[in-house]
């Protein structure tokens, strides 16, 4: 009888811990609400959005075509690094906004990078064609080191905004609206 209650207690503890990824966490970034609306919107002058000024961790990953892509390749640009997956509904929802904003701001030094957290390259190519993706899709499968460096990444989508100096400016956990991203990109220009 005693072991039955221990099992029940363990199950309850497991369920409680399973909800942890959905609890707000402190990242040193502006807090993000459940709707993806940041508590603080306007970055400080000079492109520094976060008082910590934390530099974006460097990485080199393969893109969906097998080419190496390094964050250093985007030095001097505003980078929106999006952690996502092909099975993720909210990720699919925000991709058209990324495509539109990439078209609009590409010539002004803005670059979107999509880091697929768990899809092999062969799944990314048909997905990119279907959604008309016009920015590099990176293969993050097996590269938890990159996710850990920017995270922890408990769920997707997560979009990390990096300013022209290579500093992490803001992190959006969940969906960020096109209008919100456009305001934030403009503030970093």
Describe the structure concisely for a colleague.
This protein is α/β, with parallel strands linked by helices.
Helical percentage:
25-40%
Structural class: alpha/beta
The number of helical runs is 5
Number of domains: 1
Corresponding CATH superfamily: Glutaredoxin
CATH level-1 class: Alpha Beta
Estimate what percentage of residues fall within beta strands.
Answer: 15-25%
Low-confidence stretches: 3-48
Radius of gyration: 18 Å
CATH topology: Glutaredoxin
The ordered H/E elements are HEEEHEHEHEEH
What would the average pLDDT be, to the nearest integer? 79
State the major sheet.
5 strands, mixed
Number of strands: 7
Distance between the termini: 66 Å
CATH architecture: 3-Layer(aba) Sandwich
Would you write up a description of this structure?
- With 189 residues, the chain is an alpha/beta fold.
- It has helices spanning 2-18, 89-105, 121-131, 144-150, 178-188; strands at 60-62, 68-70, 78-84, 110-116, 137-139, 158-162, 168-173.
- The chain contains 5 helices and 7 strands; from the N terminus they run H-E-E-E-H-E-H-E-H-E-E-H.
- The strands form 2 sheets. A 5-stranded mixed sheet has the order 5-4-3-6-7.
- It is globular, with a radius of gyration of 18 Å.
- The chain starts with a helix and ends with a helix.
């Amino acid at each position: 009888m005693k072991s039955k209650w221990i099992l029940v207690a363990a199950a309850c503890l497991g369920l409680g811990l399973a909800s942890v990824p959905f609890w707000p966490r402190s990242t040193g970034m502006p807090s993000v609400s459940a709707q993806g609306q940041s508590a603080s919107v306007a970055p400080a002058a000079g492109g520094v959005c976060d008082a910590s000024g934390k530099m974006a961790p460097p990485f080199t990953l393969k893109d969906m075509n097998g080419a190496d892509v390094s964050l250093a390749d985007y030095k001097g640009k505003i980078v929106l690094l999006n952690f996502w997956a092909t099975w993720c509904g909210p990720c699919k929802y925000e991709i058209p906004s990324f495509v539109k904003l990439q078209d609009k701001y590409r010539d002004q030094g803005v670059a979107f990078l999509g880091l697929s957290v768990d899809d092999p390259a062969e799944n990314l190519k048909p997905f990119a064609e279907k959604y008309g993706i016009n920015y590099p899709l990176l293969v993050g499968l097996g590269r938890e080191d990159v996710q850990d460096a920017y995270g922890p990444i408990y769920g997707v989508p997560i979009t990390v905004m990096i300013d022209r100096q290579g500093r992490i400016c803001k992190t959006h956990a969940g969906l960020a609206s096109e209008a919100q991203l456009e305001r934030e990109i403009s503030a970093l220009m």
